[in-house]
Amino acid sequence: MSLQSMTGFARHLRNSAGAQISWEIKSVNGKGLDVRFRLPAGFEAVEQKARALFSEHFKRGNFQAALSVELSAGSAKATINQPLLKELAAIAAHLREEYGLAASTPEGLMALRGVLEIPQEVTAPEHQVELERAVLGVLDETLIQLGHNRQAEGKALGEILTVQIATIEMLVEQAKLDPNRSIDAVRARLAAQVALLLDAAPALDEARLHMEAAFLATKADIQEELDRLEMHIASARNLIREGNGVGRKLDFLTQEFNREANTLCSKANAASITTIGLDLKAVVDQLREQIQNLE
């Protein structure tokens, strides 16, 4: 399966059950699955089933889902409240004669509350059930579309992650081959350090100094960190190949990458190794930033 981003957008519209039904869904990254609905009056009952649909399609992400339902025009006709209209017209004529006000217009009178009555159509229970079924059907289609959009963005993210992991591998290889890690380089540094100490304090035990220097050199060896970094690189590539739903695992793995990079920096006994460690930390931070968007 392919990687899937948690960022996406989808809008889908369909005419069904005598209505124009539209869903608009936005998603961003999140630690869990969180859906917030905006539903028109009368459709609150679909929320529970709608949440179940989201759970079927996605594992993580923050979603905002808006539903719009426009019923087709029915047979009900607008009516005019004739008695009220006649009374209002008489009042308007009186005001015009008494105070010299402008003559009232039909449009003005019709706009007054209660003059034009547009009856609200009442949806039959069986039609409401059909409508809710259609609403859920359109939602399912919209979620499929959103999934395709998130997969397209996930593919682009996967390409970025692949490049970043390759950069980490290159830096690990540079550290492995760094000439400052060679036995001769380590021996030369130790000899120079011991010589400085003996010059400063000739009474010091030369054998003990060599022993302590060798012990410190062993503690400063970064081979274990490099071996673990190589293991993490292989794990990261396997997870990317595995695809869908690995965002959380990759996030945990970046923490391990960062831990090894920190240890490498703290144990480095040469400026070149420290530079590599800092470069590693920078790439790992970039990697983690991208992984935050993966489901």
From TrEMBL:
Cofactor field: a divalent metal cation
* Domain spans labelled Endoribonuclease YicC-like C-terminal: 181-295
Pinpoint the Endoribonuclease YicC-like N-terminal domain residues: 3-158
What GO terms are given for molecular function?
Answer: hydrolase activity; RNA endonuclease activity
- Keywords in alphabetical order, please: Endonuclease, Hydrolase, Nuclease
Q: Which family is this protein grouped under?
A: Belongs to the YicC/YloC family.
Which PANTHER family does the entry mention? UPF0701 PROTEIN YICC (PTHR30636:SF3)
Protein name per UniProt: YicC family protein
Taxonomic lineage of the native organism: Bacteria, Pseudomonadati, Pseudomonadota, Alphaproteobacteria, Hyphomicrobiales
